[in-house]
């Protein structure tokens, strides 16, 4: 008489379901984490196609109210060039990210671009991807 059971429990543990859960959590957190810079202002940028850059020395933002910010600190238009020179001295390959809100007159953006050109700074115009 055979009294052994037909179902034999295997002592091996499969890690495939555990790795699936870990990968799903990784994808979830990557998609829900903010991909923008933490020191940036909440601006509505114009749409365009283009490349992004990972190197950022500092950010100059211009709002619809024509207020200028360096990173997240408000600055007057007249003190902008002096403050940029102060912050970018000693930087290797200084780069400015120019964030201009939609609807701002182009003259304001050109003013910042002119300052960057006179001081040999690289300037990148930030846009919202299409």
TrEMBL record:
InterPro entries: ExbD (IPR003400). The keyword Lipid biosynthesis does not apply. Transmembrane segments: none annotated. Pfam families: ExbD. It comes from the Bacteria. It is a single-pass membrane protein; Single-pass type II membrane protein. Gene3D superfamilies: 3.30.420.270. Keywords: Cell membrane, Membrane, Protein transport, Transmembrane, Transmembrane helix, Transport. It is found in: Cell membrane. The keyword Cytoplasm does not apply. Belongs to the ExbD/TolR family. PANTHER family: EXBD MEMBRANE COMPONENT OF PMF-DRIVEN MACROMOLECULE IMPORT SYSTEM (PTHR30558). This is ExbD/TolR family protein.
